[in-house]
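Entry for the shared binder. Reason: the reviewer on the internal report wants the predicted structure included alongside the sequence.
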Amino acid sequence: MQAWRVHRNGEPSEVMRLEEVERPVPADGQTLLLVRAANINFPDALLCRGQYQVRPPLPFTPGVEICGETEDGRRVIATPALPNGGLADYVVADTAALLPAPDALDDAEAAALHIGYQTGWFGLHRRARLQPGETLLVHAAAGGVGSAAVQLGKAAGATVIGVVGGADKAGVARELGCDLVIDRRTEDIVAAVKEATGGRGADVVYDPVGGDAYAKSVKCVAFEGRVVVVGFASGVVPTPALNHALVKNYTILGLHWGLYATKDPAAVARCHQELTALADRGAIRPLIGERVAMKGAADAVQRVADGATTGRSVVLPQGARR
């Protein structure tokens, strides 16, 4: 079978190689899956660079979430077991963690439903306790992680302000349902949020970017607001000024979704049921920016690493299906 492998750390387009390898053999408690679609996540780029919190042994195959097919023909969502990730024709995954792919979504959409939407759901509902009528500020609102948070925020009855970089992404954010879109390249985020909220600020901030996005967020967070720290796509990890959090009376919430898979897997399954119900009624639908053939996977991971994509980039190893 074919699989993309990384033999040394570096930029994805330079270190990923498409190779012929042996089909993986499932161990006890694992299932062999045909990969129908593999969603690219920013952690895939970090894995290539050797900068992710998990560092699989070299060589390894990136790809942390897929829509796959079991031997009996069931479509499932899975997180493959590294070092044999999803950018391959076949993977193995833990049987107990397999989730049914919603019938309402095609393969690419189903592959993109899991990590980003689970992160959004846990961040907004379990950590920040987002309430109907509150104002939600989402950074990178046209990206894969941000677009999921926008849809989940609207489904929860929040007023959603999306921050993007560029006019094209602003148009995408509006189509996603943002009530207000701020182009960080041409507008003052803090002033725009305060004006839109009558000076109150955002009740919940969803930040997968870090760096300057975080610095701006804490300047326009509301009294008793909550800042959900999801990641650092900017490459800059902010250092919170805790005296500022004290004076303004806001909460900084960290979210590492992967911990739920080990510490509370039942909560992951319940979340998937919620997400499936939302997908079935059309309240959420993963934004697929591009569907890429297997040979184009390395370049697609590089585009995600460079922040040059809109929505999700999904690799289709078996070609365009469903």
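Summary line for the report: The radius of gyration is 19 Å.
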